[in-house]
Amino acid sequence: MAAHRSGLEIDPSVSKVDAEDGLRKELATRRPLRITNKNLFDYIFIHSLEIAVEFHLPMQIHTGFGDRELGLRHCTPFHLRAVLEDKRFVKCQIVLLNASYPFSREGSYLASVYSQVYLDFGFAFPKLSVQGITSSLKELLERAPIKKVMFSTDGYAFPETYYLGAKWARDVVYRVLSAACEDGDLTIQEAIEAVEDIFRRNALHLYKLNVFHEKTTSIDDNTISSSSCLGKDDVILVRMVWNDASGQHRCRALPAERFYGIARNKGVGLGIAAVGFTSFRDAPAVGTNLTCAGEEIRLVADMSTLLRIPWSRNEEMVMVDMLTGSGEASEYCPRNALRKVTKVLLDEFNVTVKAGFENEFYLLRKSFSEGHEHWVPYDNSSYCSTSAFDGASFMLKEAHSCLKAAGIVVEQMHAEGGNGQFEIALKYVLCTLAADNQIYAREIIKSIARKHGVIATFLPKPDLNELGSGCHVHLSLWKNDQNVFMGSNKYNYHGMSNTGERFLAGVYHHLPSILAFTAPHPHSYDRIQPNTFTGAYLCWGKENREAPLRTSCPPGVPPDFVSNFEIRSFDGCANPHLGLAAIVNAGIDGLRRGLKLPPPTELNPADCASHERLPHDLLGSVEALAADKIFHELMGDKLVTSVIAMRKAEIEHYAKNPGAVHHLIHRY
């Protein structure tokens, strides 16, 4: 509040003696006490900045209009230049509040010149006229990068000011960005991104709020007309969805009135034995230490994931977290496992992970032969076949529309190499959101196919004579909105940064253990074979699609660098949260220990005798996981123990019943 007492012309060299003298003078004045001594305020201000630097925290500073005693000429943020150029504070992020009004243009200039300056225009809204707010926001955006401008719902004295601030902010931001689109300054998509940044992402990043459920919204005319006209009154059922450790999608459907009346906040009960169910039997596997007589867990809705079901407009679905009876996250919760390891990565290295899945699946249609029902490929065509795509385009277009309505961005889709096989690739997002999106994407693709009388199966190898299906995942590392997996002029190991190399080295080192999560079914290893683009050998390579770990240089990235890496040994039987958690877990170990990668493999590893084969079967992966203590440490011993027991049970069952795998097309 220094701006509203003694002004922003802060003296960075003020001493503690000066501050104490100023305080004595204040205490000697008449009552009521109103502290305005500049030396005292400057000292507190500088000391606060020192604390902010020490703890890597941003500091908010009131600028512009405010209290009635305000001497406005002392409140321009230009007075802060001595502080901003002080070497002690060049890395301290400073947030100028109140839109710096009436000095908005000055605040915008400072944010464009000084990397540590950010702007918040929240408090201006309930105080100014709509025209005044519009003018101020335009001035803020004249020079300031959009990534440094944010809104906070602010007000005072009575609740309506907060409501007005929230309402007017949206109206005015829409007005200003619409004008920018009309003038050609922004495209519509850039304006949508700006809205996401201003109202959500910039603050999440700046204040390190660890809110991982970042949900973007795509604008589509059909979506607007259908969803905006439907209120909650027409919702009949709400599906509470989870993906268990065997990778199966499950849900509880509740009448809307019960969900919104009780279950939304209190959740619903689930016997803890259910978290140990396998793909062949709805009963806990021996060795999971889970029984039907055990404690109950609560399935509690994560309302940030609530979605109107595009193909069933009177229903909604929402992802759930698994909580204990006391309200704490259950150690068996896959979503919590991913949250835990990403939080460790953020806390220890200030790094986040973004991920994007490439979903391969088969479309199968029903056929009858000699009185028996069979499921056969939807077509018989080749990789990227135009006729294959044309024949299934009505389903693929509907799936795309539903994904778009769910805020899931599709980057491309095409026919794959197997008969009736297709791929839909999703845009990379924060990995916790990517895992949620992956579950919703599978749900959407399978449901649209079912609607048209066919099956979409993500099973790794539904036909042993055809190519397998994977869900390759691309991952990149980010810090302060910068891709830190990519190398630089300072450090470039085959296109990777030091951070990128160490993270990938951890994944490389622990890959046999990771497979127990990413290739979690005995059937998964029918797919992971040499010369099938699935990564059967322990190696890595740049753009080598026979390696399980491939560093990638997509269009737009300089040829000497790579922007991400791909794990090809990831399939549709995997729980995406557990698969990503295992990868991040291994990457953390690589960063902690400073692990190094061996040289890349440029040839087909099947032709190189020096390359070690990855586990031939699930048992090899499970044995590797059982001996790998870092997974027990970070992901939780109870969770890992139950996963190992489930995998062993499935190994035994499918060894005795090899034909049972054919029924899994209905489960995956």
From TrEMBL:
One of its GO terms (biological process) is glutamine biosynthetic process. It comes from the Eukaryota. Coiled coil: none annotated. One of its GO terms (molecular function) is glutamine synthetase activity. Gene3D superfamilies: Glutamine synthetase, N-terminal domain (3.10.20.70), Glutamine synthetase/guanido kinase, catalytic domain (3.30.590.10), Metal-dependent hydrolases (3.20.20.140). Residues 334-668 form the GS catalytic domain. Pfam families: Amidohydro_2 (PF04909), Gln-synt_C (PF00120). Belongs to the glutamine synthetase family. PANTHER family: AMIDOHYDROLASE 2 FAMILY PROTEIN, NODULIN 6. This is GS catalytic domain-containing protein.
